Amino acid sequence: MNTGFNKSAWYSEDHSMFADTISKFYEAEATPNIERWYEQGVVDREFWNKAGAIGLLGSTISEQYGGSGLARSFDAVAVYHYARTGDTSWGFPIQTIVAHYLEAYGNASQKERWLARLATGESVAAIAMTEPGTGSDLQAVKTSAVKDGEYYVINGSKTFITNGATADLICVVTRTGNDAKGSKSISLIFVETEGLEGFRRGQNLKKIGMKGQDTAELFFEDVRVPQTNLLGVEEGLGFYQLMEQLGWERLMAGIMGLGAIDCALEKTLEYTQERKAFGQRIFDFQNTRFKLAEVATKAEVLRAFITECVARLDDGTLDASTASMAKWWGAQVQNEVVDECLQLFGGYGFMSEYPIARAYADARVQKIYGGTNEIMKELIARSLDR
Asked: Is 197 a catalytic residue?
């Protein structure tokens, strides 16, 4: 059974060594805690620190700011191998997104102030986009930031924020300037939460899947942050920054889907080759073999596409349309494959203590976050209109 990216043209010896290191780390520090994280609804802060200590969090952050300065494909490898464990609790993908916003648009002071803390795990990051009345339509956000002296005064609320219950550095999508509508008034402002007056976290939201991942509501009531926390050289660049960086977020969804598929297929192979019915292994029934052949093929087709997307990410040619394809197709195939695998477990597949049941519940949101699959199709369609 093929797994990961080890047959990819861009996959070097350095990638292999990195994959080996982080896989051992996940096996020792994540796998034994999956059930506990699922029950407590949050990953231990100590785990973030350990991930930082081995260089996982800072692998693609510039060396001058505390990282290793490796190519973006190393983040792809890290995300894949984490998804391969079968867990979805850790908000590491969000940490990489925020780090790359800072790398791309932050000034030297902001990078020095925040990137090293992200690399070590001293800081946990979140990006606050979604609002109670605004989902995939980022141009409709209402959270505002009004200048007052040397500060911005932020008012508004956000919901469904990954790492929201624990993050101490939040990139907030907000409106600035005199134009109250449209994309040109959107800016990104960093908020440090410790001791911040007017900032409040809501409850850790209860979800049908990804129960170990802290997902919270955030409230900003006359929150004052320095104007120097604005990301970029001027106000109104936020929508452009979001569109430029959303490609990585959407590709990550596809990578996570591939990792989850490989995990589900491995567990299903183990189960069907051990479980017997009517005097033979479940694996020996023709229907089982055909179903497994189908899902294995879907995995390899997705792997080939994701591999190509990662190569484009590294050389800077990954466009928004292709990233949208990776997101929607990866999520779609993940849901199809996990559903087929669960069916082969029979009644046991419906029992929550079986990882395949958790994988089934966790997979559903892949079609929603990072832009719904319907939005992805719209973005792809626009690229076809000549």
From this structure: no
